[in-house]
Specification:
mainly alpha, 4 helices, 62% helix
């Protein structure tokens, strides 16, 4: 709902801040899910979703900053989201390098849906 509101009125700073916060909060839920254990593919999926939501939040905060509409009290929001994005990227990178016989591919489809593939390679005999 907030996305529709911000799309129709790009000048409404309060709605854009609320959407950026909602996106970051959703990302935090995925980070929590990733930390609960489970299969590597499930964890990668959660980290990928978290990254996607943080990227969308970051975009909104940066737009507000470039437009000079970022309230002083929210000045750290961009740095906070950047830090969380770095955490997501580090976690995803660790899954790619943790086991050379497993390859986990992840990405975000144009629709915003995350896609995860897990492949296992075994030596030729």
């Amino acid at each position: 709902m907030l996305e529709r509101l911000t799309a129709t009125d790009r000048n409404n700073v309060q709605d854009r801040i609320a959407l950026a916060d909602a996106l970051s909060n959703t990302a935090r839920l995925y980070v929590r899910k990733a930390g609960q254990g489970g299969e590597p593919a499930t964890r990668v999926h959660a980290w990928t979703n978290a990254r996607s939501f943080y990227l969308r939040s970051q975009e909104l905060w940066m737009e507000l900053g470039r437009a000079g509409k970022l309230p002083p009290a929210r000045g750290r929001a961009i740095q906070d989201v950047n830090g969380e994005l770095a955490r997501c990227n580090d976690s995803l990178r660790s899954y790619r390098s943790s086991d050379s016989s497993d390859l986990i591919l992840y990405g975000i489809a144009a629709s915003g849906t995350s896609v995860t593939f897990s492949l296992r390679f075994s030596p030729l005999t």
